[in-house]
Amino acid sequence: MAKSPLELYRDFLRNRIRKHFDFSTTDQSKGVPVPPIQKPFPPDGVRLDLPGQYRPGAAPECDLASAIARRRSRRAFKREAMSLDEVGFLLWATQGVRGEVTEGHAYRTVPSAGCRHALETYLAVLSIEGLDQAVYRYLPLSHQLLLEFRATDLSPRLVEATLGQAFVARAALVFVWVALPYRMEWRYGLAAHKVIALDAGHVCQNLYLACEAIGAGTCAIAAYDQEAIDRLLHLDGDDEFTVYLAPVGRV
Description:
Blueprint: H1 5-20, E1 47-49, H2 64-70, H3 84-95, E2 97-102, E3 105-108, E4 119-125, E5 134-139, E6 144-150, H4 154-161, E7 173-179, H5 182-188, H6 192-213, E8 216-218, H7 226-232, E9 241-250
Antiparallel strand pairs: 1-6, 2-3, 4-5, 4-7, 5-6, 7-9, 8-9
Helix pairs in contact: 2-6, 3-6, 4-7, 5-6
């Protein structure tokens, strides 16, 4: 009896990657230059400096055990704007650079397979003090926001792209993690697609705990219309595509 698509995918995850993939065929093994660790941007792009990089003792006081105990998915947000300080902290907690930066590598606040960090963070800003409604991209190497484009219809388009999940429109901002798969494929080839998914989980868990530290909440979303959300962010859907979302607001 032929295996179902689900059974074939399970076999791919369980056996094919581990047993049959030849890592000697990757671009890294062939000496291909390492891809950049941050998506390039136009030199005249509008950039906004975020509050200074957070260091131990500078982040909000929060007992880790309490944050873990309180952690839950939250879909009821207050209709209050959040501050740029809070946005800077959440971005640092989820993708911030905390250590040495070399060609193709940067040590960050979350783990990543082979230190490849194949994710880019886009922010759909709905209610942040001092910011217009717009889509930004986080630049972790300089701790800045890059303006991608302004939009006045983000709320309804986000709800539509998340298959009618209305609570998304009540958030202050929406984190959208986008994969640039070649960053991981360069080292891991076919196995890259498993560890990109693992990396997204690491990032989102840090967001949950960081939200608890500032009296905010989030709810991870993996149910979305792939074409609609990629189109909203102006992604090509092939070399760059959405893998995870998380609305954030005060609770």
